[in-house]
Amino acid sequence: MSIAMPLPDAQTLAKRVSIVAAMRAIVPGEGVIDNPDALRPYESDGLTAYRQPPMLVVLPETVEQVSAVLRWCHAENVKVVPRGSGTSLSGGALPLADAVLLGMGKFKRVIEIDYADRVAVVQPGVTNLAITQAVENRGFYYAPDPSSQIACSIGGNVAENSGGVHCLKYGLTTNNVLGVELVLMDGEVVRLGGRHLDTSGLDLLGVIVGSEGLLGVVTEVTVRILPRPEAARAVLVGFPDAELAGACVAQVIAEGIIPAGMEMMDRPAIHAAEAFVNVGYPLDVGALLIVEVDGPVAECNYLIEEIARIANENGAVTSRISRDEQERLAFWAGRKAAFPAVGRISPDYYCMDGTIPRRRLPDVLRQMEQLSEKYGLGVANVFHAGDGNLHPLILYDANKPGELDRAEQFGNDILRLCVAVGGVLTGEHGVGIEKRDLMPAMFSETDLKQQQRVKCAFDPGLLLNPGKVFPTLHRCAELGRVHVHHGKLPFPELPRF
Amino acid sequence: MDKLEPRDAQDLCDIVANASQTGRKLEIQGGGSKAAMGAPRDATVVSLAALTGVVDYDPAELVLTVRPGTPLCEVEALVAAQDQMLAFEPFDHGPLFANELGATTIGGVVAAGVAGSRRVTAGGARDHLLGFTSVSGRGEIFVGGAKVVKNVTGYDLPKLFAGSWGRLGAMTELTLKVLPRPRMTVTMAAYGLDPRAAHAAMACALGSNADVSAAAHLARGITLLRVAGFAPSVEARCEGLPGLVREHCALHRLDGAEATDLWREAATGAGLRGEVLWRVHLQPARAPDLIARLEPLQPQWSLDWGGGLVWLALDSHGTQVRDAAIALGGEATLVRSPEAMRRTVSIFQPRAGGVAALEERVRRAFDPAGVFETGRFLGEAHADQLRA
Questions:
Q1: Chain A interface, mutation test: which of B152, B161, B382, most A Cβ atoms within 10 Å?
Q2: Could you give the residue ranges of the DSSP H alpha helices within chain B?
Q3: ipTM of predicted assembly, 2 dp
């Protein structure tokens, strides 16, 4: 519990009653929640270690209401925290005591589907899976598939640039969104992108996706939909250790194959998953790979044999190719149940999300073992092997004094290690509050200030989702200054050029 | 125009710091292959031609880090030697301005967001720029993104820099995602379709599970569908594709050399005759409407991206193409035109008021003094207006 949020503003807290009244004038009926008991369900998101009831919750239903809420809050200097389905694992939607929590859950309409040009226009509260369900009877789907896809909203996916097990081949949210309607903090409604590719001018859409609710509130999203692949096949391969499994992954890619999914689990994760779902995972291996290919039947049949060959060349000790859909789903059942399975062997677990260059995997796993000993906490690893995205699950017991703090320190060390080997703090879960204070491990002060100036271009009052992503809040006026030392510039005549 | 050739990022910092003091405008340039785009301007060219070379390339990681002045053809040869490719298929604009091929740099095509036929399925430059190092208009070196394929740490600044035309900073290092090159590529062609029938055929093919990676149509009635991948898969899909599109057209297999030339024509607008060359991005279904509206002007045209990109060449110096694009919800970029036209018509379609103001604030976040505002794009020479 080491992450501090900005101190609540006493003036804002003092005028809570008038804020509630103003919000009720904009969003009538039950769209404004101020009863403390009713606020409780909103006090955290998927990062449940952190809880803070919001000052009040506003649930608008129209873009006009969103605009009016933001305009009013902007004028009155009241902070706003946007929220989709509240499944963020990094605390992106953690409320603030002095902020309006703006819930977008009532924006649930699929507005239009255009099969000829392969786009769907939806409201932000539509769940990720509901987009696929809306188009699947015509043979289409929406590709990014974060594991929370039955619950997470597309608006939240845009905010977090969500990924999933298939993003090596199909991209993250940002590669599958064509346009948004966005309300800025001052209430202005803008449209970025649209139904065509590559807008001229700056790609503002590109910076909105993944901005973690700090730049604007999305009220409509246009996404690409793809034809559903004809078939999918998977192979389950066991290796004596992660090093050999990693070499197999590298060779698969070096031979020109981009699998739809390529997941690795280490021994603790394999054992936990097998004990939970009994799908026949080999228990005497050090690392397990699930490699899935999708596409035309002929392609799947060819590639799955190629992958099995590469696995054997790299020291696989067990190898099973799915013979039918049931067996393919069984391979996945253990992987998909890995988190709850770990939840059975440990009272609590903490899921990390760093990405590393894949070639550094053996080294990183070794150092992670040392850290595990140092902190006296176990760790199980599941890993999006294709793109180097690690999900170490740190095992701890929140009821034991000090264990949560130790788990957080362990996690921070893992993320610093990811950065040290050339990787990043987060591959798909976002910075939120969780990795906020680690940002200086990856970015210099100059880098961070430059990112914050982008924030200032959208929200100069820093009212939208403050306390997230950036470890230090700089006032925009301060960031705008240009420093010239003693009025002198180096090389005034530039004779060297 | 004077020209500076910095040797490294520190030189660039000095140049920018000096310019922000003197009010001199800087035009960041790679190989200069698109220098004839945009309004005539009085700016100091900062050529990145000396910043060349590969910093890191590990094919199995799918990541390439390279300096901006490296010629595109060298980068393509480098990755091709490992059976990989730049999947957004950037191309050289030289021939559109009667220049030789070869001047284009990797920094130039990324900064201009140049993408070829595969754009429709594989994404553009924006989707393949993972990270960069840059010198901002403040004269500071900073990084955006990272050197791994999956990253959501901080704002996605690479998206802003791809297609920024050197208006936010001068990139000194780019990290790109590379992908395996298809082991086999086959082009299937249909003949005699009009634009609406061609759009329908392309939409059907791109929406089928035959995994068609590109679709284009030339005005003389040739529709192209590309099937790429591993041989057994390509053969099976080529067998199935005619049945999938049979309501729209019959398909014929083209030989490789002929297909390569036709794809180049569709992707680059090369071969279209006319003093003025436009490219319009719009919803693919509206491409036939655009062509119908402009028919009185007798433009030469071609379609790529399944219809989402329309190249139009004509001799009219008016803005009828842009007006038609706006009416159909698209955007028209003025690629080639006589100097007189470029003085008054911005190469980029002006954006709606709120978006234009937002864009200006974002530019100011990187370039507070307008060092990179040369007047090339009209309507954004804010610094000049302030001084006047």
A1: B152
A2: 9-22, 72-80, 106-111, 119-122, 125-128, 157-161, 195-206, 231-244, 256-268, 287-294, 320-327, 339-344, 353-366, 382-387
A3: 0.96
